[in-house]
Specification:
By secondary structure, this protein is α/β, with parallel strands linked by helices. It is built from 26 helices and 19 strands. It folds into four domains: about 150 residues, Rossmann fold; about 160 residues, Rossmann fold (3-Layer(aba) Sandwich), CATH 3.40.50.300; about 210 residues, Gcn5-related N-acetyltransferase (GNAT) (Aminopeptidase, 3-Layer(aba) Sandwich), CATH 3.40.630; about 90 residues, no CATH class. Strands 8-9-7-10-11-6-12 form a seven-stranded mixed β-sheet. The longest helix is centred in the last third of the chain and has 19 residues.
């Protein structure tokens, strides 16, 4: 190793520390050389290395981001030779303290276009061979265009002589103002929830510790997915009270106790105030449950970043609060605390991973002036403004978009992108993934469940429903995302964009489909476009609490009717158990378009008999169930309250007393009358001249 490569670094680090800034340092060269340089830089200082290479002493390659969040290091090294995973790299950047470096080990920048990044396979499907990585090409271009410190094995170093930044003083006023606002808010006996949001490094965890210090005589629980995430809150509580800081193994200090969310929900202890840190990393259904654990709850979380379901928090959980706690307190910390304003590392991460992309919505939409077009990956690579607008709209519209999706957008060869524009404004995005076109031998193995190759999610699920390999040997188009600008919604833009997309791909694929979190309104949207539900997932999404529904367009030569008939039997079988808590309106949307059969003559005779005389609930219930099972579209003919009652009582088998107020049933006599009325409505529809029986 040439010592001259590092000769100026100590001076720069001293100046960086004085400015309270952080910086990226690129080590471009061989892996062995880079490791040696890294060791020479850190010496015995506080450091974290992310690598899957054994040469890195005490390095980790975390599977989950919460394994490193909530910690601080002077030096953090990310071994690019282990693979550039955006979520992981941006999380690593979040642990660098003021005056520190994010050391990124990479090959020489000019070679990134041809470099075989081991992480690239994460964005490839079975049968795809990468030729290059547009994501890495963009990364190299942006790095060379902006001030990034660089030391190269093959050339002289590219370090500035000095690091000079305008002097800044630590501004704690915004933090103090937020703290005072929360304390005043919590002093009310019936305080609504508090939402404290911030970008990383703004001191929100500190605020939580200071809240505990202010209410030092009250029982306070702090909740997060990982104990290490709340250490900073414990630290500031200790400083404020003048007592020793607890170790990572201690879960209590004075009046503050750490309890993981699942343990808290199971134990349900008495709590005066509940503090929740990194709330965006907790599934939304669990956040809703945590609201019931204490009369006073503070949710704190990072909004710009890489937490797995941060958008679920901002889009879905805040909507829940607006509906149920409309007067909740929302505060946002702008000023950084852990480092000074205009921090180079923060700015670099935002630039490289489009973290600060803000969607530029047109003020007025004119549907007749909207244009539709396809966009190639090369177009995104060559038009940074378009790329950032596409990504910003995807983030805005979908709760699970992360920075990993930026790489997916650029590097997946099976992606197809279609957009809607008005003048220079992007108003809609449709992202499609081409699946299938695999050989028969592999298709047979997939159908038998002995192989599960990468990608082809929809094709594999469809094949495994009935062992039909045609879904894998044929090409299919899965619509991955459809995002429409808020100002353009409810104006037919999304429908028109999907129609344009299907028109462009119709000659290339045999079928179209999509998969999304099942909601009544969303399912109705797809049904209007000719898509039919063929499968409902068996597990709820951890973030949204929704079951995924798979839909396929009815215009296909493949055997969708057989799959739909099977789905009908499966759905009716699982409604009283697995899908017991599905909203009844969603059940209605799932059922009303299912295939119908002809009634048996014995069923018709029994319906006629019971409909024309006083009958018991026990006689009516099984006959009504059989009628709806035979012709699910009967539901559409019922009045709204009858639809609800039939679904909740017969299909999902809820007990009447559990939903008495919702069902508007207060006695056994009323229940009997309800069943008689349901029978009358169903029988009237069956015997109408409009319906074939």
């Amino acid at each position: 190793m040439q010592d001259s490569k590092l000769s100026n670094l100590p001076t720069l680090l001293g100046e960086l520390k004085q400015a309270r800034h952080r910086q990226i340092l690129l080590l471009c060269g061989s892996r062995k050389w880079g490791i040696a340089q890294y060791k020479a830089i850190i010496r015995d200082n506080n450091a974290l290395a992310l690598s899957n290479d054994a040469q890195f002493e005490q390095a980790i390659w975390p599977q989950h981001l919460h394994q490193i969040l909530g910690q601080e290091f002077q030096f953090v090294c990310y071994d690019g030779y282990s693979g550039i995973v955006p979520n992981k790299l941006t999380a690593a950047a979040g642990t660098v303290q003021a005056g520190g470096l994010l050391i990124l080990l990479l090959p020489v920048l000019d070679t990134l276009k041809q470099w075989c990044d081991p992480a690239l396979e994460k964005w490839l499907s079975e049968g795809e061979t990468p030729s290059s990585s547009p994501f890495l090409v963009r990364l190299a271009k942006l790095i060379t265009q902006h001030q990034v410190w660089l030391i190269s094995e093959q050339a002289n170093n590219d370090l500035p002589e000095h690091y000079i930044a305008p002097p800044t003083s630590l501004n704690l006023a915004p933090q103090a103002h937020s703290l005072a606002s929360i304390i005043k808010w919590l002093s009310h006996k019936t305080a609504a929830p508090v939402l404290l949001s911030a970008d990383r490094g703004r001191g929100k965890s500190t605020v939580l510790g200071l809240i505990a210090a202010h209410y030092k005589k009250q029982n306070i629980v702090i909740c997060a997915q990982q104990r290490r995430a709340v250490q900073n809150s414990f630290k500031h509580l200790a400083i404020e009270l003048g007592i020793p800081e607890p170790s990572m193994q201690q879960n209590s200090l004075h009046n503050l106790t750490y309890i993981p969310p699942d343990t808290l929900l199971a134990a349900q202890p008495d709590i005066d105030i509940l503090l929740i840190d990194e709330a965006a990393a907790i599934p939304v259904p669990m956040l809703k449950q945590l609201l019931t654990c204490s009369p006073k709850v503070v949710f704190a979380s990072t909004l710009v970043g890489y937490e797995g379901n941060g958008r679920g928090y901002t889009l879905r959980f805040q909507n829940h609060l607006q509906k149920h706690y409309p007067n909740y307190l929302s505060l946002h910390l702008e000023e950084p605390i852990r480092y000074a304003n205009n921090d180079p590392l923060e700015n670099q991460m935002r630039l490289l991973f489009a973290l600060d992309s803000e969607y530029d919505a047109p003020s007025k939409i004119l549907p007749t002036s909207i244009q539709y077009q396809s966009v190639a990956r090369a177009d995104l690579l060559n038009d940074e403004t378009l790329l950032r607008q596409v990504f910003a709209l995807l983030v805005l519209a979908h709760y699970q978009t992360s920075v990993n999706d930026l790489r997916q957008l650029l590097d997946s060869p099976s992606n197809r992108l279609f957009i809607a524009t008005q003048a220079d404004h992007l108003v809609g995005v449709c992202l499609v993934n081409i699946e299938g076109n695999l050989d028969e031998a592999l298709a047979t193995q997939i159908a038998l469940g002995t192989r599960r190759p990468a990608g082809h999610m929809m094709a594999q699920q469809l094949a495994q429903l009935q062992g039909d390999t045609a879904f894998i040997t044929h090409k299919g188009a899965r619509i991955v995302r459809i995002a429409v600008a808020p100002t353009a919604q409810q104006q037919g833009v999304g429908q028109a964009l999907i129609g344009f997309t299907m028109q462009q791909l119709r000659d290339q694929v045999s079928y179209f489909g999509s998969s999304f979190g099942a909601q009544a309104k969303l399912l109705r949207f797809w049904q209007k476009l000719g898509f039919e539900a063929v499968k409902l997932g068996y597990k709820q999404d951890k973030s949204s609490g929704e079951f995924a529904v798979l839909v396929v367009h009815q215009d296909t030569p493949l055997n969708i009717p057989a799959i739909r008939t099977q789905f009908k039997s499966q759905l009716f079988f699982d409604l009283p158990d697995l899908y017991l808590d599905l909203p009844w309106k969603l059940v209605y949307e799932l059922c009303r378009t299912l295939p119908s059969c002809k009634f048996k003559q014995t069923t018709l005779r029994q319906l006629t008999y019971l409909a024309n005389k006083p009958s018991t609930q026990q006689q009516i219930a099984p006959l009504l169930y059989d009628a709806i099972m035979t012709q699910p579209n009967l539901l559409s003919a019922l009045i709204n309250i009858s639809q609800m009652r039939l679904i909740l009582l017969l299909l999902q088998r809820h007990q009447p007393k559990e939903l008495a107020s919702e069902l508007k049933i207060e006695s056994k006599k009323q229940l009997q009358l309800v069943f008689q009325q349901l029978l009358s409505e169903v029988y009237a529809e069956i015997t109408s001249t409009k319906r074939p029986i």
